[in-house]
Amino acid sequence: MAKVGIIGAGSWGTALAWLLNNNGHHCTMYSALPEEIEMFRTYHENKDKLPGVVLSEETDFTTDLSEAIRGMDVIVMAVPSKFVRNSAHQMREFVAEGQKIIDVAKGIEEHTDMTMSQIISEEIPQADVSVLSGPSHAEEVGRGIPTTIVVGSSSKATAEYLQNIFMNDVFRVYISPDVLGIEIGAALKNVIALAAGCADGLGYGDNTKAALITRGIAEISRLGVAMGGNAATFAGLTGMGDLIVTCASMHSRNRRCGILIGQGKSLEEAQAEVKMVVEGVYSAKAGIELAKKYNVEMPIITEVNKVLFEGKDPSEAVRDLMMRDKKIENPLIPWS
Fold first, then answer.
1. Which of 61, 69, 189, 255 has the most CB within a 10 Å radius?
2. Where in the chain is the domain with CATH 1.10.1040.10?
3. CA angle 274, 15, 285 (to 5 degrees)
4. Do 190 and 283 touch, CB atoms closer than 8 A?
5. What is the mean pLDDT of residues 294-298?
6. Which of the residues 189, 306, 312, 327 is marked catalytic?
7. Helix, strand or coil for residue 234?
8. Strand, helix or coil for residue 112
C-alpha cells in the first residue's frame, strides 16, 4: 500500500482518490477551502463537482498542506494549471529530497511558456516530477469506465512505480519518457477543443469537427516536434486520443465554453456558465507565443486567440480558415 497526498479536491483529484482507494492505497486529500474539506468529511464526495463518486471512509481530508505532503510516497498535483506555480511554491518547504510528484493538470504558463512539470521542477527542485495524461474525463474515471492513460517521466523506474500504483482492470497505464511531448499535446488540445465547441455552437456538423481534430493535431505535432517532443507521442493517447475525447464530449469544459461562444456569448459569460476553470483559455496565448518562438504555423490556434481576445466572430474565423492559401496536406509525402 502506498500513501498518496492529493493536492486539489476538484473533480479530477476526487476521481483519482477514488481510483487509488480501490487499488488499496491510502489517500490524504488537501484543499485550501475549509468548506470544501468539511463537505468531504461529511459526505466523502464532492457534491458540487463530482456528485455520486463516494470516497473510502479511510480517506483523510485536510486544510494543512504539510499533512498532505510529509511522509507521502506520491503527491498528486491536481490543482488547475493557473494555480500550479503558487501551489508548488507553497509546497516546497514540505517536500523531501526525491519525493515523487505526479502532475495531472494540463496547460502552459502564459509569459514563461513553461509546462506544468517545468514549473513544479523550478519551484521544487528536490522533487522527482512526472506527469499523468490522456483521454480521461473525471466523470468517467470515477464511475469505473475503462480508461487508458500515460505516465511520463524522465526515469523509467519512477514511471514503472507509478504505473503499478495507478493501474487496474479499468484504468490501463502506459509509460513514456517523452514528458515534453505529452504536456504539449495535453495543453494545446484544450485550445482546439474551444474551436470545436465554437463550431458546434454555430451549428456545424461532423465534417467540421473531423477537420478541426485532424488539422488541430497537425498543428500541435508541428510545434511539439519543433520543441523537442517525439512525433509518435502526438499520434498516441496523449495527442490524438486526448484531442478526440476533448473535442467530442460534453464532459469537456473547453468544448462547452466554445459552444457558448459559438452561440454568441462573450468569453466572460461562457466561463461563468461553465463554472470551472477553462484551461484552454490560458493555454491559447501561450500557444501563440510558442508558435512565434519556434516559427511554426498554427492557423487554428491563431484564430481561437482572435475569437477569445479580439472579439472576432467565430463564423468569420471559420471562413478565414477555409479560405487560406491552397496547401499540400502532408509535405513529407513525395509525388512519384
1. 189
2. 180-322
3. 45
4. yes
5. 96
6. 189
7. helix
8. coil
DSSP letter string over 33-81? -HHHHHHHHHHSS-TTTSTT-PPPTT-EEES-GGGGTTT-SEEEE-S-G
C-alpha cell at 182: 505529452
Half-sphere exposure of 243 (CA within 13 A, CB side): 29
Query: Which CATH class name applies to 180-322?
Result: mainly alpha
The CA-based dihedral angle spanning residues 277, 62, 128, 175, taken in that order and rounded to the nearest 10 degrees: -60
| Count of positions (residues) in the chain | 336
Position of cell 527542485? 125
Contact 108, 136 (CB under 8 A): no
pTM here is 0.94
- State how far Cα 334 lies from the chain centre: 36
Q: What angle do CA 217, 233, 288 make, to 5 degrees?
A: 45
C-alpha cell at 15: 476521481
Q: What is the mean pLDDT of residues 171-198?
A: 97
The owner of cell 520543441 is: 227
Give the residue-averaged pLDDT of 88-108. 97
Q: Is the pLDDT of residue 180 over 90?
A: yes
| Catalytic residue list contains 189 | yes
CATH 3.40.50.720 in the chain is located at: 3-177
- In this prediction, residue 250 has a pLDDT band, given cuts at 50, 70 and 90, of confident
What is the C-alpha separation between 282 and 264, in angstroms, rounded? 20
Share of the chain above pLDDT 90, in %: 92
Class of the CATH domain delimited by 3-177: alpha beta
pLDDT for position 276: 82
CA 187 centroid distance within chain? 6
How far apart CA 287 and CA 278 sit, in angstroms, is 15
Task: Give the Cα separation of 8 and 298 in Å (integer).
Answer: 33
Q: What pLDDT shows up at residue 110? A: 85
Query: What pLDDT, on the 0 to 100 scale, is given for residue 336?
Result: 85
